[in-house]
């Protein structure tokens, strides 16, 4: 097939692709016609058999995913190098050798790792705002956990002590409905304990008032407004977590 496509010019390739598409559409149409010609009882039996097989598929898929999630765990623990909980073997000695004992500055982990990671990822970059970057500098780890009952998953965002909020862990739990495909039913987030004047979902506007005819002076009026801030990247992070792992190896609301 490779040799054939190389030999074809661009116009011939386009014609070949069109012909293949038409053939596939015809086959799909024939399949639909066959189902429509079946009796209601027979069609129902076929659909039930299909549903039974599909249910087994989802059951085995969940078991297989759980199995490999455990196998992935040793790789995820290597992220402790990023947070500084674990040091790269021999790294400290190399720094001492290069800079000398008196010049060594103890710095653990990778500074701003997660902020840089999410900004450099195509999926999450569009979700990060300038206002949110300040807080994300203190983000030291992100963890994903499956929730069995009700079905869903939980994201945990671990933060160092920071000037924005008191919480050290922010969570977002997603409840899913398992039908033909997974559908988000609802999401429950941590209540963020903002420090005074540090709430990233609010902005104070200053507005000059008209001159007072009596005093001929102006005054300022402060008004607090809500702004949109996507602090978490929600469902997109399911894919992003794995993308970031592979990279490592080769609203206006008070709730999070």
TrEMBL record:
SUPFAM superfamilies: NAP-like (SSF143113). Coiled coil: none annotated. One of its GO terms (biological process) is double-strand break repair via homologous recombination. The keyword Aminoacyl-tRNA synthetase does not apply. The keyword Nucleus applies. Keywords: Chaperone, Nucleus. It is found in: Nucleus. GO terms for molecular function: histone binding. Signal peptide: none annotated. One of its GO terms (cellular component) is nucleus. Belongs to the nucleosome assembly protein (NAP) family. This is Nucleosome assembly protein 1. It comes from Eruca vesicaria subsp. sativa (Garden rocket).
């Amino acid at each position: 097939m490779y040799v054939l496509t190389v030999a074809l010019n661009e116009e011939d390739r386009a014609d070949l692709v069109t012909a293949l598409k038409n053939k596939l559409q015809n086959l799909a149409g024939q399949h639909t016609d066959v189902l429509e010609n079946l009796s209601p009882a027979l069609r129902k039996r076929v659909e039930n058999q299909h549903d039974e097989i599909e249910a087994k598929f989802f059951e085995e898929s969940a078991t297989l995913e759980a199995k490999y999630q455990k196998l992935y765990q040793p790789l995820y623990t290597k992220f402790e190098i990023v947070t500084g909980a674990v040091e790269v073997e021999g790294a400290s000695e190399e720094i001492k050798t290069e800079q000398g004992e008196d010049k060594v500055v103890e710095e653990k982990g990778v500074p701003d790792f997660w902020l840089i990671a999410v900004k450099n990822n195509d999926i999450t970059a569009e979700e990060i705002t300038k206002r949110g970057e300040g807080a994300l500098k203190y983000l030291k780890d992100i963890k994903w956990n499956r929730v069995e009952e009700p079905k869903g998953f939980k994201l945990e965002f671990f933060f160092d002590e920071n000037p924005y909020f008191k919480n050290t862990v922010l969570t977002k739990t997603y409840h899913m409905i398992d039908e033909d495909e997974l559908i988000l039913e609802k999401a429950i987030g941590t209540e963020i304990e903002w420090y005074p004047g540090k709430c990233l979902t609010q902005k104070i506007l200053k507005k000059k008032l008209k001159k007072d005819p009596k005093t001929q002076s102006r005054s300022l009026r402060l008004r607090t407004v809500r702004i949109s801030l996507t602090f978490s990247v929600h469902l997109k992070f399911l894919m992003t977590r794995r993308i970031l792992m592979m990279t490592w190896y080769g609203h206006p609301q008070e709730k999070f």
